[in-house]
Amino acid sequence: TTKFTSALDIPVQFVEKNVKLRGKLHHITEKGLEVEHIPISIPFITAIQRKWQSKGLLLVRLAGVELAPSGMAWLQQELKPKQMIWFQLLGREDLALECLVLVNKGQFLSVCLNEEILRQGLGRTARIEGLHHDSRLYWKLHKRLLRAELKALKKNKGIWKEESYSERIRDRISNNKFVQILKHFVSWLRRSI
Description:
Blueprint: H1 12-16, E1 20-28, E2 33-37, H2 43-49, E3 58-62, E4 65-67, H3 69-78, E5 84-93, E6 96-104, E7 110-112, H4 113-119, E8 123-125, H5 136-154, H6 165-175, H7 177-192
Parallel strand pairs: 3-6
Antiparallel strand pairs: 1-2, 1-5, 2-3, 4-8, 5-6, 6-7
Helix pairs in contact: 4-5
């Protein structure tokens, strides 16, 4: 029932047990998602506690994901301010929380943003900070993230998109030195006439 306003307020046991917390999204920044923690509410006690709860936002980073600039734009388009999200604690680094972020899509469906970004080709898989690299959970999550990234790679999505054959030929022709000299000559001829 406690409202956490700083990453340091969260007990170490919560992080070690990978507890899921609920929050309301406020901002998407270069550093991560700024989320207001929404504690479990108990009708009478919650009303009293609200008077003494301090205000503050938690900095939540997508664990195991290195965002591309297009990934940041996608997040800003996909997530709405004040949207409810769930974040599973995987680690804590200074004032930031490394988490798996889940967003509800419909009544019974939720999407893991970490995987979805990689599936869309809007980022790369990175080391999951906060988890020991020899733990089962680390390798289970890392495998899930790599599979999502592989799907984007196979479908040529996002940062993995390759140029088509005709685009490669066109680029080679336009970058050819002889063609560039010819273009300069033609433009010089037009100016002198």
